[in-house]
Design a protein that fits this description.
185 residues; endopeptidase fold (from Nostoc punctiforme); six-stranded antiparallel sheet; 5 helices
Length: 185
């Protein structure tokens, strides 16, 4: 039917344009990863006759790979507003943010900075993604906490700007207030 082919072609052309526009938006909104990520699992293909199918790739549950999973969760919350006592995506304080992020990954952690500072083990070497980083901001000792994301960066919920954000450990403000790091993974 000649009358039906033209609307179908127009519809197809319109859908193609919308798909291209949406793909452009998604690709331009990407944030480069500040650290290497684990390789994605290989695409599965049907097993040959008589050959057992490959077992599914397990989800990271500990160590360095889990650090990348945790930091991914934390980075996805950038822009969430600060709320004193907050512990969910409607608003976070620093320890509520850390507790929420780890809890979302099946790793329950204490709720306060002082309890978090006694959790895990002290990091004496290089800080890795997923390590907790502590600062003395409003009182002597650990009074603020964030999550290391790799390199010289960490993500946290500071009250000064009112939202979850990424900052540099080497920045003068943070480096002069740094009191230590703890590894909980």
């Amino acid at each position: 039917m000649p009358g039906r082919s033209r609307p179908s072609l127009a519809l197809l052309a319109g859908l193609t344009a919308v798909s291209a526009a949406l793909a452009g938006c998604a690709s331009t909104g990407a944030t480069p990863a500040p650290f290497p990520r684990p390789a994605p699992p290989a695409a599965s293909s049907p097993a040959a006759p008589g050959v057992p199918a490959a077992a599914p790739v397990p989800v990271a549950t500990s160590g360095r790979d889990m650090g990348y999973v945790v930091t991914g969760t934390a980075l996805a919350l950038r822009g969430v507003p600060y709320r004193n006592g907050g512990h969910d995506p409607s608003g976070f304080d620093c320890s509520g943010f850390v507790s929420y992020v780890f809890g979302q990954n099946g790793l329950p952690l204490p709720r306060t900075v002082s309890e978090l500072y006694r959790t895990g083990r002290q990091v004496n070497g290089a800080i890795e993604p997923g390590d907790l980083v502590f600062f003395s901001t409003v009182a002597p000792g650990a009074s603020h906490v964030g999550i290391a994301i790799g390199g010289d960066e960490f993500v946290h919920a500071p009250s000064s700007t009112g939202e979850v954000r990424v900052e540099r450990l080497g920045a003068t403000y943070w480096s002069t207030r740094f009191v230590g790091a703890r590894r909980v993974l």
